[in-house]
Every structure is written in C-alpha cells, then in structure tokens.
Amino acid sequence: MAQARFDDVWVVIPVYNEAPVLAAVLDDVTGTFGHVCVVDDCSTDGSDAIARGLSGRGVRVLRHPINLGQGAALQTGLEYVLADPLMGRVVTFDADGQHHVPDAAAMAERVGTGELDVVLGSRFLGGAKGAMGGAKRLVLKAAVAYTNLSVGMKLTDTHNGLRAMNRQAAQALHLTQNGMAHATEILEQIKRAGLRYGEHKVEISYSPYAKAKGQSLLNSVNILVDLMLR
Amino acid sequence: MFIKIALIVAVMAVALFMLRGQGARRQALRRLGLLLFAALAVVSIVFPDSLTTVAQRLNVGRGADLLLYVLIVVFFSYVASRYVRDRRSAQQLTALARRLALDEAPPPRECVAGPEVAGSEAAGPAEVA
C-alpha cells in the first residue's frame, strides 16, 4: 500500500505509447505513492485504458485529445495536481520504467525536509558513468555542457526525467516547449524563479525496452534547434 | 563586395523585423512592402533591361542574378514569419487541448475537488478517441 508520509505527494507521469510496461511501472509507483497523475499524450496503443484500470490505487488519468509532446504533458500534469489544495510535493517520473521508485521516494523526502525547492535526478552524480553506450554518453555529456552554459548552472545531468519539487516550484513552472527541449526550459525557469535546487544520485535502468523507446541521437539535433529558435 | 554586405544586412534586418514585434504597425509595413514589391515587379516587366541596369550598378552582373538574390531574401523572411506564426498557433492548440484534458479529468481527490476540476464530476473517465 501507498505510504501515508507521501500523502501530499503527486507523481506526474507523462505517457505516450507505453502499454508494454505501463502496468508494471504504475504497480511499482502506487506501492509507495498514493496519488499518481498519468497524462496520456494521445497514445494509440491503449496506454490510457491500462492506466484507468488502476484508478482504485490512486491513479488519475488525463488524456490529451491530440499528441502534443512530453513537455506539454508535464505541464498539463502540473496544472492538474496544483488543483489539489493538499498537494505539497510533485515528483515527475518517466513511464518507460527507467527510474527506480526508491530514488523518487528519497528525493520527495529531501524536498519534504525543506532543504531544497527542487531535487533533480542525476545519473552522473559522483562521477558515475551510467550503463550506456559511448555515443549516447557523449551526446548526453555534450547536452549537459551546453545546457549548463546556456542556463548558468553546474549540473551533472540535465536531461533526467526524475525530479521532485515542492508546491512553490510547481507553481513557478510554465513550460511552453512541448517537445523534449522542456528539460532545459525547466532548468531556466528554476533559475529565474530563484528556487533552491540540488541534485540527487539516481539509478537508471537501461532495459532493452527503455533503450528502444529512448531518444534517438539524431533527435538531439531537433532539441538544439528548438532551443535556439525561440 | 558591396552587394554581399548589403544582402547579408538585408537578411538580418528582415529576420529581426519578422521575429519581433507585431500588431497593426507591422502589418501596415508589410503591406507597404508588398506594394513596393508589386511596383518594382511592374517596372521590371515593362522595362526588362532595367533590372540588368540596376544589377550592373550594384556589381552583380546580370538582372537574373539580382532577382535570385532578392528571391532568397524574400523566401527566408517568409520562412521566418511562418515559423513565428506556427509557433503561436501551436501554443494556442496546446492551451486548448490542455483545457480539454483538465476538464474531462476526474477530481484529484475523492473529497476535495480543486477549482480547476470543480463541476467536472459528471464527466468521469475521458473518452476521446
């Protein structure tokens, strides 16, 4: 069962065609968190029906009438959970099973102590290499360097979907980048709002499924152009 | 050499002009630009050699080359303005789709319905095919 100490926590999970793993991921998340907001970005594989089947375990499903992108799904989820006056903390979590629930719980607890407004998951913190191929690591590292430079932060991982934040931070975010460039946009807005942020070491599971679903290297070109042409 | 600088400056100016500001003033200027374009087109049709004369004075060579350069500038400005307009309509579409998703969503908690979802209890699970 969900733990009472997380009763003020909402987990926002943007979903787009994750039917093969969604039930397992939601089962895992609802074992710890009692309030889960799934934003289905107009999946065509029945992901929304799978999520709705778990409404008895605290899963609420929102569905975009058209596919808008992960950034848009996150923003929709944030606006939904802000409508809950008892919401004190938000965790963003990827639907493909790459994140670990204990990491999310630990990050939510750090936000709960009040030491930080936003806790960002990092797979590279403490010099960890992360179990990924050389080319992918190179692109990710380049993205980290570029993002740090443009945003003015010193992070070890800038494209990690696992984050925890308090209500104030959730209110400060207004994502307009519907696609994947929202990862950078979130950091910009955290910085601009003067929120206290920190990183938290997290594990990433590179299952064959997550790998197949993950960002293709070429898409990083799209993200870069999206960020430059604003 | 002069023509290169002039064209580069024109490209930059058009890009800047198209990317910032909007409203009646910009629309009026765009319409004036269109009128000027039509006038020049008519002149070049009536006096086919005029284009070449102008081109030679600008050290471009043939009138056809000048036409190509101008076309590139115009095309680029079109792409830029199209991009801005597409982005704006995408944002409107996003707001609309988000509103729909939020309105059809169940209340976040059984007992407490927030302001965003108040009154949507009857909607139940969204069925948008």
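DSSP finds nine helices and seven strands in chain A.
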